[in-house]
Backbone:
């Protein structure tokens, strides 16, 4: 694999871009990086909203997730809802006080995505998604 592809898969520049774009929001709302990422994830994850789902998708440690969701719950940004069928699981739901922040995160991500995908056709995006899915599947088998 060439160095450019390997670098892209590691996501370093993408993470740096997100961190730079999130700096103002983090300061404005006094939230940590993990809290911001979890709020954005929860706003787009549907029913996949447990700590395990957050762990698998965002690759955060369970300790970071625990601290972040505790902080978000204390601030009334999210609610922890016990699973009705399996008491080992807790689902997280975004509450009204977080809606403005979530809207700003979403708008910011949409603008950023538009800029980084500039000049990429629908066909190229379709191929990229297919290849990415295959790479992800291969990595998951190796892990």
Residues:
């Amino acid at each position: 694999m060439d160095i450019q592809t390997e670098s892209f898969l590691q996501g370093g520049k993408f993470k740096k871009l997100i961190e730079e774009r999130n700096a103002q929001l983090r300061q404005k709302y006094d939230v940590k990086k993990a809290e911001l990422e979890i709020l954005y994830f929860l706003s787009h994850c549907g029913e996949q909203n447990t700590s395990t789902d957050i762990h698998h998708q965002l690759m955060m440690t369970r300790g970071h997730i625990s601290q972040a969701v505790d902080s978000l719950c204390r601030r009334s940004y999210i609610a922890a809802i016990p699973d009705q069928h399996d008491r080992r699981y807790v689902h997280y739901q975004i509450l009204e006080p977080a809606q403005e922040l979530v809207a700003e995160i979403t708008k910011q991500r949409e603008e950023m995505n538009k800029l980084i995908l500039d000049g990429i056709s629908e066909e190229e995006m379709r191929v990229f998604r297919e290849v990415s899915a295959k790479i992800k599947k291969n990595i998951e088998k190796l892990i």
Q: What stands out?
A: The beta strands are 78-82, 90-94.
